[in-house]
From TrEMBL:
NAD(+) binds at G125, G126, Q203, E268, Y395, G586. Keywords: Cytoplasm, Histidine metabolism, Lyase, NAD. PANTHER family: UROCANATE HYDRATASE. Residues 84-210 form the Urocanase N-terminal domain. Pathway: Amino-acid degradation; L-histidine degradation into L-glutamate; N-formimidoyl-L-glutamate from L-histidine: step 2/3. This is Urocanate hydratase. Catalyzes the conversion of urocanate to 4-imidazolone-5-propionate. It comes from the Bacteria. It comes from Flavobacterium suncheonense GH29-5 = DSM 17707. InterPro entries: Urocanase (IPR055351), Urocanase-like (IPR023637), Urocanase_C (IPR035401), Urocanase_central_sf (IPR038364), Urocanase_CS (IPR023636), Urocanase_N (IPR035400), Urocanase_Rossmann-like (IPR035085), Urocanase_sf (IPR036190). One of its GO terms (cellular component) is cytoplasm. One of its GO terms (molecular function) is urocanate hydratase activity. It catalyses: 4-imidazolone-5-propanoate = trans-urocanate + H2O. The gene is hutU.
């Protein structure tokens, strides 16, 4: 069968032969056993809904075995034989160009070079899934190939509920992931309901089909590292940045450190993902011995090398060893998946990777004890370094939150609302006041032709737009503009593309709209193919997350999720091609609500109208909320937006004289 025929087949009427387990692939760890015997029957029964009754007798023992062996029913047998990658849009069967673009984005999320656990349909973060099983993937792709521009595909946590009549202005796909009743959003609830096959953790850009590999976070990480050094008055050259995690998101850290110009040490316990990042060029060197690491880092600092070094081992050993050796760390953080601490997101020190995985699956309570002991040691080692002058920040991965729950010494001596921890979130000190409050966030695009030359043309278009805008930009955002121009000029030489021909660029509403319109005009002229616009949910408006995206909201509303919900609703009727809303994300199930979108540019006048309406709302919704929280930069930005758009009228806060209070 051709690729197109396999897509149109959906779930085959004749079952394919079982596939052998491929040990060369980076697989998800076994999930802990949490279902009762009756619930296990229900999980198998739920999985069988995708198959004709004639197949049930053959599939029941197979699905039972998968559930017992891996903790989930992935339906490995149904994994397609074709190569999983984003193809040119013309390669996809279908009646809707918008739907074809979504198929392209789904396959990019599952590309072996992009996905963390591709056979388990997990893109990043240890549990950030595109689908829960391969039947869902096959059925979704079939629906997308069949749909017209007057239908909408409804996705319930990975399950394609079906095609519904709508209209051309409606989104082609509406995605929800993990939208639980609030009292059922604890980590064990995810384990149970995900094992039952009724919900999933879509992370942020995994379950919304907008992940573009580590590049998606490299730009924001570069800005964070640069501004972290600016904050402490240090030049990155000859300075040391220490962190951990080389997964889908955290793998961006060493590349960002290299672009910033410092020495980066990033610890990772998983040898497979370390090898992948080295092969991709995201890290320069791998060191497995602590003494050798100390010698190598001292030499790099002395020679002011720009180098990224992966330490294959536990980050706690690095912090403790560098303290013993009195090796000064200028900038420190952590980006392990602590939103997922009990299922592979963070590993205990002093235990091998293999032994830890075995303990995680078979002795989960003991594993939890060891993780919390490690968190206490981790925090204690960081505290020793910060007394010597290290600037440490939480990288939004729930490190401080989970460390506090473990009883680690991370709480502020004099806590205030929003500043409970002794160390700031990077959003509180860097990204919030410097970027999000002014409307700057991770705008991104994908060239549907799959041609590198199209990406190069879009890079140039974006650069030209930004340079023209900077001539008249106010002083308050000149630094942001300069950083973004520097980024886009170096994008090609930094070899950031993994998977699809994609790019990320921090931009405000004006920049996003002007860049998108310039793309649309270039498409209309036939200079480039279709372009998909999107953004990370980690943005100005898309996410309500009290310990990350909205951690610099100090009016008490950081625990509310109105902004994310309004964001998705507003995007859906202003022209988005698809929208998504998720429970979960980078800081954990039950800790965040985040929403995203995708928009296909086809060179039409309709696309121009949609992009202008939607992108303006998508950014200014969040700026207005941040302004109401009395954030100074946001008050400036929303007043400026009202000056440019007479139809915008936002409620502004009145400030109180503190002495009166």
């Amino acid at each position: 069968m051709t690729f197109q025929e396999q897509i149109l087949e959906g779930i085959p009427s004749v079952l394919p032969q079982p596939k052998p387990y491929d040990a060369r692939i980076n697989h998800a760890p076994k999930r802990k056993e949490i279902l009762t015997d009756e619930e296990k029957k229900l999980a198998v029964k739920n999985a069988l809904r995708y198959f004709e009754p004639k197949h049930h007798a053959a599939l029941i023992p197979e699905f039972k075995e998968e559930l017992e062996k891996y903790g989930r029913i992935y339906m490995y047998r149904l994994r397609p034989d074709y190569e999983m990658k984003a193809r040119p849009i013309s390669d996809y069967p279908g009646k809707s160009e918008q739907a074809k673009a979504i198929m392209l984005m789904i396959q990019n999320n599952l590309d072996y070079a992009v996905a963390q656990h591709p056979h388990e349909l997990i893109t990043y973060g240890g549990n950030g899934a595109v689908f829960s099983n391969w039947a869902q993937y096959r059925l979704t792709m079939k629906y997308l190939a069949e749909m017209t521009d007057e239908q909408t595909l409804v996705m319930y946590s990975g399950h394609p509920m079906g095609l519904f009549p709508s209209h051309k202005e409606a989104p082609r796909v509406v995605v929800t992931n993990g939208m639980m009743i609030p009292n059922y959003s604890k980590p064990d609830d995810w384990e149970r309901f995900n094992a039952l096959g009724v919900t999933q953790y879509g992370q942020m850009t995994a379950g919304s089909y907008m992940y573009i590999g580590p590049q998606g976070i490299v730009h924001g990480t570069t800005i964070t590292v640069l501004n972290g050094f600016r904050k402490i008055g240090k030049n990155p050259s000859g300075s040391l940045f220490v962190t951990s995690g080389l997964g889908g998101m955290s793998g961006a850290q060493p590349k960002a450190g290299t672009i910033a110009g410092c020495v980066t040490v990033c610890a990772e316990v998983n040898p497979k993902i370390t090898k992948i990042r080295h092969e991709q060029g995201w890290i320069h060197e791998i060191v497995e011995d602590l003494n050798e690491l100390v010698i190598r880092v001292r030499k790099a600092l002395e020679n002011k090398e720009v180098v990224s070094i992966a330490y294959l081992g536990n980050i706690v050993d690095v912090w403790e060893k560098f303290d013993e050796e009195n090796l000064h760390i200028d900038l420190g953080s952590d980006q392990t998946s602590l939103h997922n601490p009990w299922a592979g997101g963070y590993y205990p020190v002093g235990i091998s990777f293999e032994a830890a995985n075995e303990m995680m699956a078979n002795h989960p309570e003991h594993f939890k004890i060891e993780v919390q002991k490690t968190l206490r040691r981790h925090a204690a080692a960081i505290n020793k370094h910060t007394t010597k002058g290290t600037y440490f920040f939480d990288y939004g991965n729930a490190f401080l939150l989970e460390a506090s729950r473990a009883g680690a010494d991370v709480m502020a001596e004099n806590p205030t609302l929003g500043r409970e921890f002794k160390y700031p979130s990077y959003v509180q000190d860097i990204m919030g006041p410097m970027c999000f409050d002014y409307g700057f966030g991770p705008f991104r695009w994908v060239c549907c032709s799959g041609k590198p030359e199209d990406l190069a043309k879009t890079d140039q278009i974006a650069c030209d737009v930004l340079e023209e805008m900077m001539k008249n930009s106010p002083a308050e955002i000149q630094q942001q503009m300069a950083d973004n121009i520097q980024w886009i000029k170096g994008a090609q030489q930094n070899k950031l593309v993994v998977g699809s021909q994609a790019r990320i660029l921090y931009a405000d509403a004006e920049g996003r709209t002007k860049i998108a319109e310039a793309f649309n005009q270039a498409i209309a002229r036939g200079e480039i193919g279709y372009v998909v616009l999107g953004r990370d949910h980690h943005d100005v408006s898309g996410t309500d997350s009290p310990y990350r995206e909205t951690s610099n909201i100090y009016d008490g509303s950081r625990f509310t999720a109105d902004m994310a919900i309004h964001n998705v609703i507003g995007d859906s009727f202003r022209g988005a091609t698809w929208v998504s809303i998720h429970n979960g994300g980078g800081v954990g199930w039950g800790e965040v609500i985040n929403g995203g979108f995708g928009m296909v540019l086809d060179g039409s006048k309709e696309a121009s109208r949609r992009l202008e309406s939607m992108l303006f709302w998508d950014v200014n919704n969040g700026i207005s909320r941040r302004s109401w929280a009395r954030n100074e930069g946001a008050m400036f930005a929303i007043k400026r937006a009202m000056e440019t758009q007479p139809l915008l009228k936002v409620t502004l806060p009145n400030l109180v004289d503190e002495s009166l209070l």
